[in-house]
Structures are given as structure tokens and as C-alpha cells.
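note to self — DONT lose this again. spent like an hour looking for the file last time. sequence + predicted structure for the chain T wanted, 121 res
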Amino acid sequence: MPKHERSTGGAAFYQVYETRDRRHIVLAGQEPKFIRNLLGALKRDDLIPLCLRGPGPHQQPVIAFLAETFGRMSAAEAEKLMGETGAGFTPAAKSTPPPPPAPPPTSAAPATTEPAPAQGE
């Protein structure tokens, strides 16, 4: 399986990025207009040609830049930026932590079937 195709991590605009508040932004629009709008708004026009070449290891600098950029933003800030640029994205649903594990069963003393000793014995 190729390691740097669109759905296997090779496309910067087809990734999940974590925000400062541990939420996630999912980029899912590789169209040139989305690439130009977002990278232009972030003042990184120099990265646009890497994305326009299609998926591949050459996009790693873009992935690193976007991961760092979104990592400094809250989810609300990232969503605002994405909305302003018109880039293809969706906020990931907020995950809830799993419930705590159930307590281990308690071991009760085994029941006895012998009669209690008579008083005075």
C-alpha cells in the first residue's frame, strides 16, 4: 500500500489536526482554491506549490506547518479561520472520555452450611 497517497497521510489538506484545546479540525478539501485561500491567509504562499503537486512526501513541510499552526489555536479560533477562508473542513465531534472501569467484584466469605455451635458447648 502506498504510504503517501491522499488517504494514507500524504496530503496536507486531507488530514486531522489537533487544536490547543485537544479538539480536532479535519481538512477535506484539496481543491486549489482551498489551498490558496488557507495558506494565503496564513502568509505561507511558499507552500502552495507543494500542495498543487498532489499527495506525496513533498507535502510533509505543509503538514508540519499546519499541525503547528492548529496546535497553537483553540478549536473556535481554527473554525473561525476556516470559515473566513472558505477552506473545506469540518470540526471533529468532541470526544468524551470513556467511563471509568467497573470496580472488581468483591469476594464474600463463603457461606457455611454447618450449624452454629449450641450455647454452652
